[in-house]
Amino acid sequence: MEQLLHYVWKHKFFPLQHLQTTDGRSVEVIDTGLHNRNAGPDFFNAKVKIGGTLWVGNVEIHDRASHWYAHHHDVDEAYNNVVLHVCGEVDVDVCTQDGRTLPQMQLSVPASVTENYQQLLATMQYPPCYRIIADLPKLVVHSWMSALQTERLEQKTEAITRRLQQCDGSWEAVCFVTLARNYGFGINGDAFEQWALSVPLQAVGHHRDDLFQIEAIFLGQAGLLDPQSISESHRPAALADDYFQRLQNEYTYLAHKFSLAPIDHHLWRFMRLRPQNFPYIRISQLANLYYQRRASLSQLLECTTADQLREALATQATPYWQTHYSFGAPSSKNSKRMSAASIDLLLINTVIPLLFAYGRFKSSEPLCDRAFDLLEQLKAEHNHITRLWSECGIDMKSAADSQALIQLKKEYCDRKDCLRCRFGYEYLKRKP
Questions:
Q1: Quick one: which H or E segment has residue 28?
Q2: For residues 187-216, b (16+ Cβ closer than 10 Å) or e, as one string?
Q3: Which of 17, 276, 316, 395, by CA, is between 20 and 30 Å from 409?
Q4: What is the pTM of this model?
Q5: Could you tell me which of 190, 203, 202 has the C-alpha nearest to residue 163?
Q6: CB 64 within 8 A of CB 58
């Protein structure tokens, strides 16, 4: 497997002595070069001595030497600076576009590396490297988790940057959309983001002192005031519900006034949701939060501690939804406050990434540092991902740790991308 051959070259998992080209010249690998994951040679600026002469240039790697021609490198001038062709099997001589015959070296993947890699790929248990996790040096675990924390924040920053373009450069709108997306708590995240992008915040701003009108716009834009959005069994009671009728009439007036068009109500998922997570409840809580003017980006930026942010995001459903989970279906009275655990998830997935992204945008190191500090202040998340890592022997002390391990699971373990993982590196180099 060519990918594994790349890995063996990059990490020098091969004997460093008695290497030679196919024509008998000695090879000394001083520097394997910089791994290139884009178009062009596989490794840039490698340093190798061939027959006693130092060469500085690029290295190309193939399973078979004949792949050089199959990939048309012989007619691509980008490969003229290749100084060594490394192959699992040299089955043909190769030439560059400028007519130079390349020195080639046959390199085998050590049997132990192949066996370890096959174990990782074949293991269905998550994580596949579970056998060694508990014995890894603390420095290895800590350094990799620190890198993963940053990687996860940078990934979320990319998503926020894309939203910034969709919101015409408005950071306040980005804050609203990002917060809304995370009100979906995974299952309805995409629907909440599409909904938030459809909400005309400038128009809503004209009615910000009227909670009923805010809720009418919010629920109307979600398509949840369309009678077809209500299940047939509940529809008669909902249509007879006075609050539903008032909201529907108000939205009809405001939709005409601002030329509004709701999103498709079929986007919302209710199956296997706890009632307190129904879109009605979450949108009502967002309407209350928006009405209270406590979760704008400018206000969140003023908060310096986790407790201040928790207070800013604390909200509850509007009065009607304290006694309902859906239109026309009364429930026992319940304030339906956002739970403390849910607020902390909003801090982790909304506020902290926004601080980091805005800090990057403004070149503000203190804001970026505050994002990391807040992750350290918050408790580690408890979910099926973190429980599995804990069972493997990794101790999580803060949300910084749990976010790192969530990143590791989603971006490495799920993709079986063990060759880019530092835990995978430790596994591959072990002796069976």
A1: strand 26-31
A2: bbeebbbbbbbebeeeebeebeeebbbbbb
A3: 276
A4: 0.87
A5: 190
A6: no
